[in-house]
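User: I'm designing a mutation panel for Competence protein ComF and want to avoid disrupting the core. Could you give me a predicted structure to guide residue selection? Please restate the sequence first so the numbering is unambiguous.

Assistant: Good idea. Sequence first, for numbering, then the predicted C-alpha coordinates:
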Amino acid sequence: MRFTWLNDFLDLIFPRCCEVCGTALHDQEICFCLVCEGQLPKASFHLRAMDNELTVKLQGLMLVNRVISFLRFTKKGVSQKLLHKLKYQHKPEIAVHLGTLYGLELSKMNYVSEWDVIVPVPLHPLKLKRRGYNQSEKFALGLSNSLGIKVQDLLIRKVFTETQTKKSRLQRLENVEEVFDLKINQNLNGAKILLVDDVITTGATLIACAQVLLANGAKHVDLATIAAGGK
Protein backbone atom coordinates (compact mmCIF):
# COMPACT_ATOMS: atom_id res chain seq x y z
CA MET A 1 0.00 0.00 0.00
CA ARG A 2 1.27 3.47 -0.87
CA PHE A 3 3.14 5.21 1.96
CA THR A 4 2.91 2.12 4.19
CA TRP A 5 6.66 2.24 4.78
CA LEU A 6 6.38 5.85 5.88
CA ASN A 7 3.51 5.04 8.24
CA ASP A 8 5.52 2.15 9.69
CA PHE A 9 8.52 4.42 10.22
CA LEU A 10 6.41 7.10 11.90
CA ASP A 11 4.81 4.46 14.13
CA LEU A 12 8.28 3.48 15.30
CA ILE A 13 9.20 7.07 16.15
CA PHE A 14 5.75 8.23 17.28
CA PRO A 15 3.78 5.08 18.11
CA ARG A 16 0.01 5.34 18.01
CA CYS A 17 -1.44 4.27 21.32
CA CYS A 18 -4.90 3.29 22.52
CA GLU A 19 -6.64 6.32 24.02
CA VAL A 20 -8.02 4.15 26.82
CA CYS A 21 -5.25 1.78 27.96
CA GLY A 22 -2.18 3.24 26.25
CA THR A 23 -1.03 0.09 24.46
CA ALA A 24 0.42 0.37 20.95
CA LEU A 25 -2.17 0.14 18.18
CA HIS A 26 -2.02 -2.24 15.24
CA ASP A 27 -2.47 -0.97 11.68
CA GLN A 28 -6.19 -1.79 11.59
CA GLU A 29 -6.95 -0.17 14.94
CA ILE A 30 -8.14 3.46 15.18
CA CYS A 31 -7.97 5.34 18.49
CA PHE A 32 -8.67 2.22 20.57
CA CYS A 33 -7.26 -1.29 20.72
CA LEU A 34 -9.77 -4.00 19.91
CA VAL A 35 -10.10 -4.97 23.58
CA CYS A 36 -10.90 -1.45 24.76
CA GLU A 37 -13.18 -0.77 21.80
CA GLY A 38 -15.14 -3.88 22.70
CA GLN A 39 -15.43 -2.70 26.31
CA LEU A 40 -16.63 0.86 25.64
CA PRO A 41 -19.48 1.71 28.07
CA LYS A 42 -22.13 1.72 25.36
CA ALA A 43 -25.66 2.80 26.15
CA SER A 44 -28.77 1.34 24.53
CA PHE A 45 -30.93 4.47 24.28
CA HIS A 46 -31.34 4.02 20.52
CA LEU A 47 -33.20 0.74 21.10
CA ARG A 48 -36.05 2.75 22.70
CA ALA A 49 -35.31 6.18 21.30
CA MET A 50 -38.72 7.67 22.06
CA ASP A 51 -39.12 6.11 25.49
CA ASN A 52 -35.97 6.10 27.60
CA GLU A 53 -34.58 7.97 30.60
CA LEU A 54 -33.19 10.74 28.40
CA THR A 55 -36.52 11.51 26.72
CA VAL A 56 -38.24 11.45 30.12
CA LYS A 57 -35.66 13.92 31.45
CA LEU A 58 -36.44 16.42 28.69
CA GLN A 59 -40.21 16.01 28.46
CA GLY A 60 -41.95 19.20 29.49
CA LEU A 61 -38.99 21.33 28.43
CA MET A 62 -39.44 20.80 24.68
CA LEU A 63 -41.32 18.68 22.17
CA VAL A 64 -39.17 15.58 22.55
CA ASN A 65 -38.93 13.13 19.69
CA ARG A 66 -35.83 10.91 20.00
CA VAL A 67 -33.00 11.38 22.49
CA ILE A 68 -30.05 8.99 22.22
CA SER A 69 -26.44 8.71 23.31
CA PHE A 70 -23.60 6.36 22.37
CA LEU A 71 -21.88 6.00 25.76
CA ARG A 72 -22.87 6.08 29.40
CA PHE A 73 -21.05 8.83 31.28
CA THR A 74 -19.53 7.93 34.63
CA LYS A 75 -17.22 10.13 36.68
CA LYS A 76 -13.62 8.90 36.43
CA GLY A 77 -14.81 6.30 33.92
CA VAL A 78 -13.78 5.65 30.32
CA SER A 79 -16.32 8.07 28.86
CA GLN A 80 -15.11 10.96 31.03
CA LYS A 81 -11.49 10.16 30.15
CA LEU A 82 -12.27 10.24 26.43
CA LEU A 83 -14.28 13.48 26.66
CA HIS A 84 -11.46 15.13 28.60
CA LYS A 85 -8.91 14.14 25.94
CA LEU A 86 -11.25 15.29 23.22
CA LYS A 87 -11.89 18.71 24.72
CA TYR A 88 -8.60 19.54 26.39
CA GLN A 89 -5.84 17.45 24.79
CA HIS A 90 -6.49 18.17 21.10
CA LYS A 91 -7.79 14.74 20.14
CA PRO A 92 -10.51 15.43 17.54
CA GLU A 93 -10.00 11.98 16.03
CA ILE A 94 -11.66 10.46 19.11
CA ALA A 95 -14.96 12.19 18.31
CA VAL A 96 -14.80 11.23 14.64
CA HIS A 97 -14.16 7.58 15.46
CA LEU A 98 -16.89 7.42 18.11
CA GLY A 99 -19.30 9.00 15.64
CA THR A 100 -18.36 6.43 13.00
CA LEU A 101 -18.89 3.57 15.45
CA TYR A 102 -22.25 4.91 16.60
CA GLY A 103 -23.34 5.59 13.05
CA LEU A 104 -22.71 1.95 12.18
CA GLU A 105 -24.96 0.84 15.05
CA LEU A 106 -27.70 3.29 14.04
CA SER A 107 -27.53 2.24 10.39
CA LYS A 108 -28.14 -1.38 11.38
CA MET A 109 -31.46 -0.24 12.89
CA ASN A 110 -32.51 1.69 9.77
CA TYR A 111 -32.10 5.15 11.26
CA VAL A 112 -30.69 6.42 7.96
CA SER A 113 -34.14 7.39 6.67
CA GLU A 114 -35.05 9.26 9.86
CA TRP A 115 -32.92 12.36 9.24
CA ASP A 116 -32.24 14.76 6.39
CA VAL A 117 -29.30 16.52 7.98
CA ILE A 118 -26.96 16.32 10.98
CA VAL A 119 -26.42 19.61 12.82
CA PRO A 120 -23.68 20.07 15.45
CA VAL A 121 -24.12 22.33 18.47
CA PRO A 122 -21.84 25.30 17.73
CA LEU A 123 -19.00 26.71 19.81
CA HIS A 124 -18.56 30.43 20.32
CA PRO A 125 -15.88 31.73 17.89
CA LEU A 126 -13.53 32.56 20.78
CA LYS A 127 -13.75 29.05 22.19
CA LEU A 128 -13.43 27.56 18.71
CA LYS A 129 -10.25 29.54 18.12
CA ARG A 130 -8.88 28.44 21.49
CA ARG A 131 -9.65 24.73 20.98
CA GLY A 132 -8.99 24.60 17.25
CA TYR A 133 -12.07 22.53 16.41
CA ASN A 134 -15.65 21.90 17.45
CA GLN A 135 -15.84 18.48 19.11
CA SER A 136 -19.56 18.19 18.33
CA GLU A 137 -18.87 18.81 14.65
CA LYS A 138 -16.21 16.07 14.67
CA PHE A 139 -18.74 13.66 16.18
CA ALA A 140 -21.24 14.72 13.51
CA LEU A 141 -18.69 14.02 10.76
CA GLY A 142 -18.16 10.52 12.13
CA LEU A 143 -21.90 9.88 12.14
CA SER A 144 -22.07 11.20 8.59
CA ASN A 145 -19.33 8.77 7.51
CA SER A 146 -21.49 5.82 8.50
CA LEU A 147 -24.99 7.13 7.84
CA GLY A 148 -24.33 8.96 4.59
CA ILE A 149 -26.22 12.02 5.85
CA LYS A 150 -24.75 15.46 5.25
CA VAL A 151 -23.52 17.69 8.07
CA GLN A 152 -24.57 21.35 8.08
CA ASP A 153 -23.50 24.11 10.47
CA LEU A 154 -26.91 25.74 10.64
CA LEU A 155 -26.48 27.36 14.05
CA ILE A 156 -24.33 30.08 15.56
CA ARG A 157 -23.59 30.80 19.20
CA LYS A 158 -24.11 34.53 19.66
CA VAL A 159 -23.07 34.79 23.30
CA PHE A 160 -20.02 33.49 25.12
CA THR A 161 -21.63 31.70 28.07
CA GLU A 162 -20.02 30.81 31.36
CA THR A 163 -19.13 27.18 32.04
CA GLN A 164 -22.14 25.03 32.88
CA THR A 165 -20.28 22.53 35.06
CA LYS A 166 -21.33 23.78 38.50
CA LYS A 167 -24.74 25.19 37.60
CA SER A 168 -28.09 23.72 38.56
CA ARG A 169 -30.55 22.60 35.89
CA LEU A 170 -32.53 25.85 36.14
CA GLN A 171 -29.35 27.93 36.01
CA ARG A 172 -28.17 26.03 32.93
CA LEU A 173 -31.46 26.66 31.17
CA GLU A 174 -31.26 30.37 31.99
CA ASN A 175 -27.60 30.48 30.96
CA VAL A 176 -28.37 29.50 27.34
CA GLU A 177 -31.53 31.53 26.75
CA GLU A 178 -31.25 33.47 23.48
CA VAL A 179 -27.67 32.25 23.01
CA PHE A 180 -28.21 30.48 19.66
CA ASP A 181 -29.56 31.51 16.29
CA LEU A 182 -29.59 30.34 12.67
CA LYS A 183 -26.49 31.19 10.66
CA ILE A 184 -28.67 32.38 7.81
CA ASN A 185 -32.27 33.46 8.23
CA GLN A 186 -34.11 30.67 6.43
CA ASN A 187 -37.06 28.33 6.67
CA LEU A 188 -35.94 24.76 7.24
CA ASN A 189 -38.92 23.49 5.23
CA GLY A 190 -39.93 20.53 7.36
CA ALA A 191 -36.41 19.12 7.66
CA LYS A 192 -35.85 16.13 9.93
CA ILE A 193 -32.77 17.07 11.93
CA LEU A 194 -30.34 15.13 14.11
CA LEU A 195 -28.82 17.65 16.53
CA VAL A 196 -25.57 16.44 18.11
CA ASP A 197 -23.38 17.47 21.04
CA ASP A 198 -20.61 15.88 23.07
CA VAL A 199 -22.48 15.21 26.33
CA ILE A 200 -25.95 15.63 27.76
CA THR A 201 -26.50 16.35 31.45
CA THR A 202 -29.49 18.64 31.99
CA GLY A 203 -30.01 19.02 28.23
CA ALA A 204 -30.15 22.83 28.45
CA THR A 205 -27.83 23.50 25.50
CA LEU A 206 -29.50 20.95 23.24
CA ILE A 207 -32.96 22.26 24.13
CA ALA A 208 -31.96 25.84 23.33
CA CYS A 209 -30.58 24.79 19.94
CA ALA A 210 -33.53 22.54 19.13
CA GLN A 211 -36.02 25.31 19.86
CA VAL A 212 -34.30 27.58 17.34
CA LEU A 213 -34.47 24.87 14.67
CA LEU A 214 -38.13 24.07 15.39
CA ALA A 215 -39.06 27.76 15.39
CA ASN A 216 -37.56 28.06 11.92
CA GLY A 217 -39.51 25.26 10.28
CA ALA A 218 -37.87 21.95 11.20
CA LYS A 219 -40.36 19.07 11.23
CA HIS A 220 -38.69 17.46 14.23
CA VAL A 221 -35.33 17.55 15.97
CA ASP A 222 -33.78 14.41 17.43
CA LEU A 223 -30.92 14.69 19.90
CA ALA A 224 -27.76 12.56 19.99
CA THR A 225 -24.58 12.84 22.06
CA ILE A 226 -21.33 11.01 22.57
CA ALA A 227 -22.17 10.41 26.23
CA ALA A 228 -25.08 10.88 28.61
CA GLY A 229 -24.46 11.86 32.19
CA GLY A 230 -26.44 12.38 35.35
CA LYS A 231 -27.83 15.56 36.79
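For picking mutation sites, this is relevant: The beta strands are 67-72, 117-120, 155-157, 180-182, 192-200, 220-228. The longest strand covers residues 192-200.
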